[in-house]
Design goal:
With 656 residues, the protein is of the alpha/beta class. Helix content is 43%, strand content 18%. The strands form 5 sheets. Strands 1-3-2-4-5 form a 5-stranded mixed beta sheet, with helices on both faces. A 5-stranded mixed beta sheet has the order 7-6-8-9-10, sandwiched between helices. Strands 12-11-13-14 form a 4-stranded mixed beta sheet, with helices on both faces. Strand 2 and strand 3 form a beta hairpin. Helix 2 (86-97) packs antiparallel against helix 3. 44% of the residues are buried. The model is unreliable at 1-5, 45-53, 118-125, 249-256 and 303-307 (pLDDT under 50).
């Protein structure tokens, strides 16, 4: 966001964000940065090959996520489809805020030091920097994309030895843009790995054309949607034996066991509406193709169920109002109420609902139960509404418990570690629930890049969601290899033992093998349903809906009741200089100013004879503004309010 002083724009989680009018120059410079990242980084397949063209990519997504419509921003994507590494952030901030030629030269020198492979001579290989562009539905997006393209092209030319290729994917979600860059890298790796295995040397021009064809096919919208759709269909596919037997015990106990009710999705008046429409259109095509083919059951693509694969009701599209205005996951999660757009104000009541943000990388589920309040006879009875939210914490719980169950059934619990990464903002009831059920957790600093890193470093399968619904499940390369090898081994063993065992022993053994095989296939389908690059609301909807179906069409109320959140309160305190606050223990404790943490600890013990384990409070500086954020948690709302007021007073005393 723009700083109040001199329009200085800080580098946020993945790039820059402020009012769109201040972004033209920053867009140009971000485009140049992306070209440099693409030109001077190489994929794993080309790192050890001097004669292979790098063809690595980077990306720019023009979006301001959950901000209001007048804002915009630029998110920079590295060659692996991740957010640009932390090592680049300070240099990028210097480049985009440089006001003089000397400042810009100094910033570029700083950035150059961070770029890999600069020591490689330009004669080693022809360099082609590929930069992917995408934008959300904001009016200013098209203008800023063009500015960023100009910056990207500035690197090209004879003097640099770099050819810059622009791939504009138009209006897409942020996770889609990340996926395109990820898929580009994987296509290059697969191509060169395949070439190594072939003895004959192909014509260089023909080889390059073939590579570009594969890259182009892998980085189109259809490839993205097809991956997720096929993964989801594989996840919910029912075996013939289950179809014959009918409902299982769990399904029989649930009122809505036949199918899940439709999911009403608030798309934040943004790009999510457009993307979900395209996904549903693909499901229609798959269904039509399946019904017209007698042998589709035997094909590589799983047969869609006889009932509709997924029932989605899309609301709040780009034509319904400004992006994020009184809608979107940020609005729902922070205000604890349904979207309040004119066309959908009452349409979420008594429905199963979800909400995404403006660029469709965050997701929360919610439900509003409405009933008549008791009143005197003759009076108009009022409606009582009960709002229930399943935020990022409960998404983590559902996904983690499901995957733990599948790992046990697959016999892999001792080979693959699984845990949840979260931030200090996760509700205390969530962490206690995980501890009680033996689920390992790790707390990271606020920011999705920090939680992503913690999940990646601590677990083979790391599930992470910030409370705002931004997250995913990460499968390490090693975990994927173990699952795939175990699946091949199980299929081989199953085939051999069916031939060797006596007839009367076959049935019992096949039941055991089939249970394990189903779990392995479920894990493989889960991997395919997840966007491997970054947290993705569309991918998460498919995964959550698939899990709920696998659990006998689990009702929202049952999921929500897994644990009860403690009351919380979040406030902001204006200070002269936010940098006087230094935190540690993943921002749960305050190191400076001296004495502030002790005061907070004393406040938590007020009005209590013994330490109340349900009380918690912490303060942390904002990353972009001179404010201090205060978080308080207690067993009741009144206590939250009292503690919050006292902590705010302490912040003012110690920081000003």
């Amino acid at each position: 966001k723009c700083s109040s002083s001199n329009n200085y724009v800080s580098y946020g989680t993945a790039g820059f964000r402020c009012h769109h009018a201040a972004l033209d120059l920053i867009a140009f410079r971000c485009g140049f940065i992306a070209s440099c990242v693409a030109a001077f980084s190489r994929t794993n397949a080309t790192n050890n090959s001097n004669d292979a063209p790098p063809f690595t990519a980077a990306g720019i997504c023009v979006t301001a996520s959950h901000n209001e419509a007048s804002d915009n921003g630029l998110k920079i994507v590295d060659g692996h489809g991740n957010v640009l590494g932390e090592a680049y952030e300070h240099a990028c901030e210097m480049i985009c805020n440089a006001k003089t030629e000397a400042q810009l030269e100094n910033a570029l020198d700083c950035f150059e030091e961070k770029l890999p492979f600069l020591e490689t001579s330009r004669e080693d290989a022809k360099k082609t920097a590929v930069v992917y562009f995408g934008r959300d539905t904001r009016e200013s997006g098209e203008r800023l994309v063009e500015k960023a393209k100009e910056g990207a092209r500035a690197l090209g030319g004879r003097s640099s030895g770099v050819a810059v290729k622009i791939c504009d994917r138009g209006v897409v979600t942020t996770p889609m843009l990340h996926y395109f860059v990820y898929a580009h890298g994987k296509a290059v790796e697969a191509f060169y790995e395949n070439n190594k295995q072939q003895e004959e040397k192909n014509d260089e021009d023909a080889t390059e054309r073939s590579l570009w064809e594969k890259i182009d096919a892998a980085t189109q919208e259809l490839a993205y949607f097809k991956r997720l759709a096929v993964g989801y269909l594989s996840l919910i596919e029912e075996d013939e034996e289950k179809k014959k037997k009918g409902k299982n015990v769990v399904e029989g106990l649930r009122a809505n066991a036949t199918t899940l009710p439709p999911l009403h999705i608030d798309c934040a008046n943004g790009v999510g509406f457009v993307a979900f429409e395209k996904l549903m259109a693909l499901f229609d095509v798959i269904r039509e193709n399946s019904s017209s083919s007698e042998n589709s059951r035997r094909s590589a693509t799983p047969t869609p169920p006889t009932t509709k694969e997924i029932a989605l009701v899309l609301k709040n599209g780009p034509n319904d109002g400004p992006v994020n205005l009184n809608c979107g996951s940020d609005f729902v999660q922070k205000n604890q109420r349904a979207p309040e757009t004119p066309s959908t104000r009452l349409s979420f009541v008594n429905q199963r609902c979800a909400s995404v943000d403006g660029d469709c990388d965050r997701l929360v589920y919610f439900s509003i139960e409405e009933g008549e309040e008791e009143g005197k006879e003759g009076e108009n009875s009022s409606k009582k509404q009960n709002f229930m939210l399943c935020d990022g914490d409960k998404l983590s719980i559902l996904i983690a418990f499901f995957l733990i169950e599948q790992l046990f059934l697959a016999g892999l619990a001792h080979k693959i570690s699984l845990g949840i990464a979260h931030t200090a903002y996760s509700n205390g009831a969530f962490t206690k629930f995980c501890e009680k059920n033996g689920v390992e957790t790790v707390c990271a600093k606020t920011g999705v890049k920090n939680v992503h890193k913690a999940a990646e470093e601590h677990f083979d399968i790391g599930v992470y969601f910030e409370s705002n619904g931004h997250g995913t499940a990460l499968f390490s390369d090693e975990a994927v290899k173990v699952i795939e090898k175990e699946l091949v081994d199980e299929l081989t063993r199953m085939s051999v033992e069916q031939h060797l065992r006596k007839e009367e022993e076959k049935h019992i053994q096949s039941v055991i093998l089939t249970t394990k095989l189903k779990a392995l296939l479920t894990l493989k389908a889960t991997i395919q349903t997840i966007n491997p690059a970054i947290g993705d609301a569309i991918s998460s909807v498919l995964l959550i809906e698939g899990i709920l179906r696998k659990k006998g069409n689990m009702p929202f109320q049952e999921w929500h009741a897994m644990y009860r959140d403690l009351p919380t309160k979040q406030t902001k305190v204006k200070v002269r200089d936010r940098t006087v606050i230094e935190c540690f223990d993943s921002e749960r404790k305050c190191l400076k100013p001296e004495g502030l943490q002790q005061r907070i600890d004393e406040i938590l013990l007020l009005d209590s004879c013994v330490k109340n384990n349900n009380r918690r409070a912490f303060v942390r500086p904002s990353g972009t503004e001179d404010i201090v954020r205060v978080y308080v948690e207690a067993s009741d709302a009144e206590t939250c309010e009292k503690i919050s007021t006292k902590v705010e007073e302490a912040v003012i005393e110690f920081c000003n």
